[in-house]
Design a protein that fits this description.
- The chain is of the alpha/beta class.
- The chain is built from 8 helices and 14 strands.
- It has helices at about 15-25, 65-80, 110-120, 150-160, 175-185, 225-235, 255-260, 290-300, and strands at about 5-10, 30-35, 40-45, 55-60, 85-90, 125-130, 140-145, 165-170, 185-195, 200-205, 215-220, 240-250, 265-270, 285.
- Strand 2 (about 30-35) and strand 3 (about 40-45) form a beta hairpin.
- Helix 1 packs across helix 8 (about 290-300).
């Protein structure tokens, strides 16, 4: 993108992370407001000029649906106000689990959302740990796909854990787990699970040795926490010394907090891509703000961002 002035704005549910990102960048959030009508409809507006500016809109698209809609309305407003470029900073890209037709007569939600973002006037997307790397191909625009391993790997190394083994909670996460095992110079195990319906694991087995090992389960999303708690229980029954879990996006719905607190997991390490609904002594949050600020700065100044990729 050509050099132009830069302005940051945030959706209502992502101001907590937007404020951190712009602080690390050395800037401040622009002024915006949202008019809410009595029936629940809402209209975002910019309270300062964005003409000719590169506008960065920071908003994760976790539920409710209003978060996604607010991002699109803000992008449309910026385009109609003659912004030079509109860049969506989406730490957590919701709907990413709908990346294929896994049964007849269902939508591919991730592709639909990517098309909606493009139609709303967004020129570029910055996001982190998509559920599947190939989702980048759903977008008709540039995508900067950042990996939280840039944050997690140094933290895990700082713990100086002996007899460490990295575990993938399912077959789909083997590439991610393999990357962590390479950078941590450890062995890897794989869990094979069967589901009869969404969010409910019917059966799970472990491929690999975990006896007398300290296990780190690596995933992109923790939703109900049913899988990681079941895996942790099974790992401990098989002789593991301890079990930790690393996940980029703490969706943590339903009874997730209760499950984690009552589980045999030592620690769950997440980012602040989604705000925690409650605190837990077992959950450690590592902020992604500095990472995103650095990537934004490099993109804005036409510098390589390859140093921000570990996986």
């Amino acid at each position: 993108m050509s050099k132009s002035s830069i302005k940051f704005f945030a959706g209502r549910q992502s101001r907590y992370i937007a404020e951190k990102i712009v602080k690390h960048f050395g800037s401040e959030l622009g002024k915006s407001s949202v008019t809410v009508f009595s029936d629940g409809e809402f209209q975002p507006s910019f309270e300062e000029t964005v003409r000719g500016c590169s506008v960065f809109i920071i908003q994760s698209t976790f539920p409710p649906l209003e978060n996604l809609m607010e991002l699109m309305l803000m992008a449309d407003a910026a385009k109609r106000a003659s912004a030079y470029k509109v860049i969506a900073v989406i730490p957590y890209f919701g709907w990413a689990r709908q990346d294929r037709k896994d049964k007849p007569r269902v939508s591919i939600g991730a592709k639909l959302v990517a098309d909606l973002l493009y139609t709303s006037g967004i020129d570029r997307v910055m996001t982190m740990d998509l559920h599947a790397d190939q989702i980048q191909g759903f977008f008709n625009m540039q995508v900067d796909h950042i990996y939280a391993s840039t944050l997690f790997v140094p933290y895990i190394k700082s713990l100086n854990i002996e007899n460490l083994v990295v575990a993938s909670p399912d077959m789909g996460g083997t590439k991610r787990a393999n990357a962590y095992s390479r950078f941590l110079d450890t062995e890897m195990t794989i869990c094979y699970k069967l589901r009869k319906q969404a969010n409910i694991v019917d059966h799970i087995t472990v491929i690999g040795e975990v006896k007398n090992k300290n296990v780190v389960i690596v995933d992109d999303i923790i939703d109900t926490a049913g899988t990681i708690c079941l895996v942790a229980k099974m790992m401990m029954e098989r002789g593991a010394k301890s079990v930790r879990a690393v996940a980029s996006h703490p969706v943590l719905s339903g009874n997730a907090y209760e499950r984690i607190n009552n589980s045999q997991i030592t620690e769950v390490i997440v980012t602040d891509s989604i705000p925690l609904k409650q605190q837990s002594p077992k959950i450690k949050v590592i902020s992604l703000a500095a990472l995103f600020a650095d990537v934004i700065n490099k993109v804005y100044n036409y510098q390589s961002i390859s140093s921000n990729f570990i996986v």
